[in-house]
From TrEMBL:
The lineage of its organism: Bacteria, Pseudomonadati, Pseudomonadota, Alphaproteobacteria, Sphingomonadales. This is Uncharacterized protein. It comes from the Bacteria. It comes from Novosphingobium sediminis. Keywords: Membrane, Transmembrane, Transmembrane helix. The chain crosses the membrane at residues 39-59.
Amino acid sequence: MAQTLRVLGLFALFLGLLWMGQGAGLIMWPASSFMLEQKIWILWGGVLTLVGASLLVVAQRSR
């Protein structure tokens, strides 16, 4: 269970950071992405990053 939470947490954390970077215009990949420089994706990426961090905390505590 803890291993699954850890994997999901890391995936969510990195995906959230990617979304934030794309929304802020810092990561312009892929070039055809609809998320590039769309500020709402900074918010959604931040939410997903917090969810991922929370999953990592829960995984650490359930060891």
